[in-house]
Structures are given as structure tokens and as C-alpha cells.
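Protocol step 6 of 9: fold each sequence in the batch and record its C-alpha cells directly after the sequence line. For illustration, a two-sequence batch is reproduced in full.

Sequence one:
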Amino acid sequence: MRKFTILWLLIIITITSWAGGGWPQPKGKGYFKLSQNWIISPFFYNPNGNVIDITTTSIYTTSMYAEYGFTNRLTGIAYLPFFVRATLNQVQYNQTGQFFPGDDYQSFGDTDIGLKYGLLVNKPFVVSATILLGLPLGSTAGGSSKILQTGDGEFNQQIRIDVSHSFYPKPVYASAYVGFNNRTNGFSDEFRYGAEVGLTLKKFIPILKLNVVKSLFNGDGTAIQNGIFNNNTEYFSPTLELNYQATEKWGLSGSGGFAFGARNILAAPNWSLGVYLKW
């Protein structure tokens, strides 16, 4: 019985390092990740969900993500995009020969801080509740054009419930979540849900994730509509992530996320590379 308990705790800790999900971090344990994300797109999902041509727009985000277990049930969460660079390509109109110069802007980005509390822990099914506060630390009017953004300028509060299950002794886990995101400054509130499945293959841990965002379209219509941090954004986004556990504590991570059935969002993959530490 003791051996089973130890093995169960080990797989729970391993799963927590990859996915979070319903598992809070154990007391004194944590997870830290340094990532580089980028999106480069000459296409855009308009409000009707149609893909249209736009001037190539890019956003590059260098960020830190951390989780720390204050107790065995309470985990602190922080997402800090400390360097965000948005760019707009130069445009030439062939008939007139007129040039519109490109533009770029870099600054701090919008930051998330939160707490996760384990409602049901140390069970085959675990359940947690999370509250995330989105701090509008980015810029909404950057560059010479004053249209480049590193944030949306609104303070949001997201509440979500996660349910997770380990299929031990098989090295597989599954998680699902549902959440509500209250947005301010004229932005519409959002309903969010998703799921993920992960598999531990010695040093390789592939994870398939699905995230869905649905707008309630209850904003006042004055929110910024500049192409990257839009109001009334919707999408159905599968993401494939691959982690490589180089040592007991360190690892590498890469992912590619894609948006389908989307509105008011760039029509291009979101790529990410990162390095993580767990203890």
C-alpha cells in the first residue's frame, strides 16, 4: 500500500509539472518556465469568421510562467510577459508606387496573477478552482502609427474549474476545464473551456490541448480593434506540445497552436519554445 501511494504521488507530481490541470503544486514545490512565443500573419479572421488579407503583422513575446505551492492545496500562479514586440510590415501599392513604412514597438505586456485551490485532492479525480487577474500593464497605442499593441488595456478577472484524472499505472492523464472571464473597459465577457491529454514516454511527454473561447458580445463597442488584442475574439484552438525531460529538474518544451472557426484574431499558428525547471 505504501509503495502504491509513493508511486501515485510521483506520477501526480510529474503530471502537475507538465499540465497543471486540477493538480495544485505540493507545498514548497514549484514549476518555472521561460518561453518565447511568436505569431506572424498576413491573414486575419474578420468579425464574420472569414479569412482576409492584411498587412503582415507579427507579435513576439518573451515570458516567464511560475507556479508555487504555498500549501498542499493552495498554489500561486504568475505569468509575466516581460518583453513583447509588435511589428507591422512596410507596404507598397504597385499602381501608385506609394510606400507606407513599417512600424514596430516593444514594451512590457499584460500580466496574469492568480491562485489555484484544490477542492478535491489525492483522489483518482482531482478538482481545483482558480482565479486569475489580468493586469493591463501593456501598451495599447505604440509605435509611430500608434496602433501597435502589447496589451488590451482592460483589467479582467477569470474564474475556472479544472477536473483531472490519472490513468495510472498507464502513463496517461486527462484534464478538462470550464471558465468565465469578466472583462472591463468595454470588452465583452468570455466563456472558456478546454481539455488536454498527456502521455509520459520516458523523457518525452507529448500533450494535446484544446482551448475554446466564446464571446458573450455584451461589450459597449468602444473597445480597441487593432488586430492583435481585439474585442469579441473567438476561436477553437488545438495545440500540440512536446516536452523533453533532460534531467530530473530541467526540460525543454515546444508547441504549435492553431485557430479554427475564429473571429477577430490573426489567422496564423502560435509557435512557442521554452525551458522549464521543476523542484
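Sequence two, same batch, same settings:
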Amino acid sequence: MHEPLVITAAICGAEVTKADNPAVPYTAQELAAEAERCFAEGARVIHLHVRRPDGTPTQDRETFAAAMAEIRRRAPEVIVQVSTGGAVGMTVEQRTGPLDLAPEFCTLTTGTCNFGDEVFENTFPMIRAIAEKARAAGTRMEIEVFDAGFIDNALLLARKGVIPEPLHFDFVLGVPGAMTGTEDRLDFLRSTIPADATWMVAGVGRFELPLAQAAIARGGHVRVGLEDNLYVSKGVLAQGSWELVRAVAAMAREAGRPLATPAQARRILNLRAA
């Protein structure tokens, strides 16, 4: 029997805009309303980026604080995971702004890759600086893996004590310029992580829902949302990240796998008590 499924909703990201899909949330109120609906559909983690009113991505601490407060007001049990990736080109100081709020969960990308026409840079000094700030804040880290070498980097940093164990990985597959989103790639990545590590998969674009189904069958966890995929089916825009969460929850029910409660999700992810 697989353990209960933890669903993460990546509700806005830094790249997609309302021009791509009008449901992409920008304001604290829009983010919180989306988080509440995702929680009601079964998501237990909200992967959070924030925007200025015009949709420009920002890692401003106060903007994060406002969004997190509104999310906690509307969905008090949900786990808020802040992004330290921010947007391509941001400095480490900018990217780590939300860690000043001592969130319970954050992302940590452990390598550099092409990201569409740009480069998402994460040198070892940058990774260490972000990890050290997260440790100082008492924030649990999720290792974001866009390509296979990111796992090797994470394991090296774990051996050096930079990243606390046990590790939790998010395989982000299908980004143009990085590893594609096929099941054989997922199975290879799974084979390279420690036995005590937990993992989830975030398929980008057309890979999102097929990889979600593959993760459910393999005992992993799932991230979906408008950050990664704008469509609920071919050519049909999702009404919100909640609709993608609903689709994954239906897959889990069909597979006979229960959704995690908030308490179970925190236990599975090795998070501190809320």
C-alpha cells in the first residue's frame, strides 16, 4: 500500500500571466482565493510566487507576507511553500527575501540549466547561500530537479551538511532546455535518490497530467498548477489551478490512493508542526 498522496498546487509562478490564462492570480486576495479552492479540492501544499499588481514577479518580503497572511486566513491548515527560485535573473538576495519570514517550507534548486531562451543560474555559492539562509530560518527545503545532475549536487551538499536530511525532491520535467517529461526519465531519477528520500513530480505543459498519474502509481507525490500548465485538456484552458488539483484527486481515487490530510502531509514531508 502506498502512503497517502500529497498534492502541491503551484498557483501562479513567475512566467505565466493573465494574458496566457485569465485565471492566473496576482494579488494577495486572488492568491488566497485560489489557495482556498485548491485546498478544498485536496491540495495540501501551496507553492507560492508573488506578483506586483501589474503581474511583474517579485520576491519582496512584504508582498509575500501579505499573501501568506491572506492564505492562512482563508485556508489555515494549508502548507505554504515559498519559492526561492523567483524569476530568471534575480540575485540571491532578491530570491531569498521570503525566507526572512521563516516559512515552514521552501524550494531549493541545485543546478543551472537552460530555461527556454534564458539560463536559470544556480552556482554552488548561490545554492549554499540560499540553503544556509533556509537553515537559519528553520525552513524545510524541497530540492528542485530540472536535470539529473541536480540530484548529484544535492547529495554532495547533503554529505557536507549544507542540506539537512532526509531529502525531499521535486522532479520538474518538461522545461524546454532541461530534462523531458517521459516516464523513463522519471524512473531514472527515482533510481538515483536515497531510499529514505521522498519525491514528487511536476510535469510541465502536456507532461503534467500523465506524469501525475505515473507518480500516483509509483507511490510518489504530485505538483500541478497554472505555473506549470495552463490547460486541463488539449486546447482547453484550466479555470484555475484548483481544476488541475481536482483532476489529480480523481486519478488518486481511481487508483485507490487516499489524499493526505494536512497532518499526514506534514509528517510525510518532515515539516515542523504548524
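Proceed to step 7 once all outputs are recorded. Observation for sequence two: The two ends are 27 Å apart (CA to CA).
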